[in-house]
Amino acid sequence: MTVGLLERYRKFRQWRREPLRFEMSDTGHHCQNCGLDFTGNYCPCCGQRGGIGAVTWSSVRESVMELWGVGTRSMPYTLWNLLWRPGYLIDEYISGRRQVSFPPVKMLVFTAMIVFVLDHLLHLHVFGADSEPSTAAVESFIDRAVNWLENHYDWSMLFQFSLLILPTSIAFRNSPRHTRHTLPQGFFIQVFNSTLFLMLLAIWAVVRRAILLGGDNDDLGIAGFLVIAIVQVVVVYRHVFGYSLWGTLWRMATLVPMMVLEITLLLALGSLFFEEHSTLTYFFFGALFVLGTLFTWVARVVFSKRQAATRRQRRRQKAAMWTLWGALTLSVLALLRIFYMLVTGKMLLKATTEAEMHKGVGMAAVACFLLLVFLLFTGYMIRRLNKKMKTAQADASVPVS
């Protein structure tokens, strides 16, 4: 039984890499359209497919499918491939093998329409439970933007994944499979990502409803939302760009601060043009932007494969090291501050109800978890950069013969 399962898995992996084999037909045909006798798959004179004869029920099926744009380049076939071999399908498309793929932007719109209809007919709550309408007389710019995105599944997914286009082109620019990764390639990668994410969210909504027997749970939905997004992007990027699992993961870690930069800039611009805020709000946005830029620069210095051959490059490494130690110190102080306020009860002094107390403790726990993750990642970056600096120092001390 084990041998049979291994054989099936081997065939499945082979199918993921090569789902179709194109072969030239050596059968002779008589074109019913122009009357030319030819050998091959299509008539060289008028382009009609070989083997077309009298009208049958198969012709009816093909005509109905073509009405919805899912004829020869079938949308169901493309969605099936996108579900089981997403990275390979995207790699084929951006590499030039587009004839077997349904047009990706059109596929995203159709998929969003299907998910929208199923969501409202079956009450799946694909994006979580429906929130109560706001009673505020005037909504903020952010509220209006969120409401619009919640009602437009296709543009919502494309907007969220489009934030990855520029960071991906920076972090995966010199990948083994796509050297000099371009922004247009990144656009189509994120269109496929959006379509796949919509499908996975719909499947997760059905599974969640089955587990909860028709009920709903926002925490379970959010957890599934995050897990699906992270796992999907890891799998897609690993297959598209050709890095190892670890190489994909650490490059994806550098995407987070760059996305924070984009979101911060968009929020700041939106608030600047559509709302009036205090100077403190813009200072907060500016601080986030500067911190995100600084962290992105430090990550590029740490994870760059180039050795510091000049004095200027060694100074950059020293500056990055001091920045990391500063971030580590501030994180430790923030973590100790949260522990102190929890132990002394100062964090919960303003809580008037038990629900507010639980909410305060939960937010403190999330902040502690994020700070611990940041501490571990910063410690790893310090260790890696320290090794690079020692190697560069050793290379600089070796006399040139």
Task: Describe what you observe in this structure.
The protein is an all-alpha fold and 401 residues long. It has helices at 2-17, 57-67, 75-84, 86-95, 104-122, 141-150, 153-162, 165-171, 183-211, 218-241, 245-253, 255-274, 279-303, 311-344, 354-397; strands at residues 28-30, 37-39. A two-stranded antiparallel ribbon has the order 1-2. A hairpin with a 6-residue loop joins strand 1 and strand 2. Helix 9 (183-211) packs antiparallel against helix 10 and helix 13 packs across helix 14. It is globular, with a radius of gyration of 27 Å. The termini are far apart.
Order of helices and strands: HEEHHHHHHHHHHHHHH
Strand content: under 5%
- Helical coverage, percent range: 55-70%
- What do the pLDDT scores average to? 76
**Which structural class best describes the helix and strand composition?**
mainly alpha
State the total count of DSSP E strands: 2
Shape category: globular
Uncertain spans: 131-138
Biggest pleated-sheet summary: 2 strands, antiparallel
Question: Taking strands numbered 1, 2, ... along the chain, how are they ordered across the largest sheet?
Answer: 1-2
Short description:
The protein has 15 helices and two strands.
List keywords for this structure.
401 residues; mainly alpha; two-stranded antiparallel sheet; 2 strands; globular
Produce the secondary structure layout.
Layout: H1 2-17, E1 28-30, E2 37-39, H2 57-67, H3 75-84, H4 86-95, H5 104-122, H6 141-150, H7 153-162, H8 165-171, H9 183-211, H10 218-241, H11 245-253, H12 255-274, H13 279-303, H14 311-344, H15 354-397
Antiparallel strand pairs: 1-2
Helix pairs in contact: 3-4, 4-9, 4-10, 5-9, 7-9, 8-9, 9-10, 12-13, 13-14, 13-15, 14-15
